[in-house]
Amino acid sequence: MTITLATEASASTTRKRLSRTREAISELGGIGWKVTEYSKGRYEILRPTVNSHKLPR
After folding, report:
1. CA-to-CA distance for 31 and 28, rounded, in angstroms?
2. What is the spatial distance between Cα 5 and Cα 57, in angstroms, rounded to a whole number?
3. φ and ψ at 23, to 5 degrees?
4. What is the pTM of this model?
Protein backbone atom coordinates (compact mmCIF):
# COMPACT_ATOMS: atom_id res chain seq x y z
CA MET A 1 0.00 0.00 0.00
CA THR A 2 1.42 3.37 -0.95
CA ILE A 3 0.46 6.47 0.97
CA THR A 4 1.55 9.91 -0.14
CA LEU A 5 2.15 12.26 2.76
CA ALA A 6 3.78 15.66 3.02
CA THR A 7 6.17 14.74 5.82
CA GLU A 8 8.61 11.94 6.54
CA ALA A 9 7.63 9.65 9.39
CA SER A 10 9.27 7.13 11.67
CA ALA A 11 8.75 3.42 11.06
CA SER A 12 6.26 3.14 13.92
CA THR A 13 4.24 6.10 12.63
CA THR A 14 4.16 4.58 9.14
CA ARG A 15 2.93 1.24 10.54
CA LYS A 16 0.19 3.02 12.49
CA ARG A 17 -0.92 4.99 9.42
CA LEU A 18 -1.07 1.79 7.34
CA SER A 19 -3.06 0.07 10.07
CA ARG A 20 -5.59 2.91 10.21
CA THR A 21 -5.82 2.96 6.42
CA ARG A 22 -6.60 -0.78 6.33
CA GLU A 23 -9.30 -0.27 8.97
CA ALA A 24 -10.86 2.55 6.95
CA ILE A 25 -10.84 0.46 3.76
CA SER A 26 -12.56 -2.35 5.65
CA GLU A 27 -15.21 0.05 6.95
CA LEU A 28 -15.89 1.39 3.46
CA GLY A 29 -16.63 -2.14 2.26
CA GLY A 30 -18.96 -2.61 5.21
CA ILE A 31 -21.11 0.40 4.37
CA GLY A 32 -21.70 -0.47 0.74
CA TRP A 33 -18.70 0.91 -1.09
CA LYS A 34 -17.05 -1.42 -3.60
CA VAL A 35 -13.46 -2.13 -2.55
CA THR A 36 -11.31 -4.30 -4.81
CA GLU A 37 -7.68 -5.10 -4.12
CA TYR A 38 -6.30 -5.40 -7.65
CA SER A 39 -2.68 -5.81 -6.55
CA LYS A 40 -1.07 -6.33 -3.16
CA GLY A 41 -1.74 -3.13 -1.23
CA ARG A 42 -3.45 -1.37 -4.15
CA TYR A 43 -7.17 -0.82 -4.11
CA GLU A 44 -9.88 0.39 -6.40
CA ILE A 45 -12.57 2.09 -4.34
CA LEU A 46 -15.95 2.97 -5.84
CA ARG A 47 -18.74 4.68 -3.98
CA PRO A 48 -22.22 3.15 -4.11
CA THR A 49 -24.52 4.27 -6.85
CA VAL A 50 -27.46 6.35 -5.70
CA ASN A 51 -30.65 6.54 -7.65
CA SER A 52 -31.76 9.95 -6.45
CA HIS A 53 -35.04 9.67 -8.32
CA LYS A 54 -35.92 6.61 -6.18
CA LEU A 55 -35.17 8.16 -2.79
CA PRO A 56 -38.16 8.78 -0.51
CA ARG A 57 -39.13 12.40 -0.13
Report:
1. 5
2. 41
3. -60, -45
4. 0.63
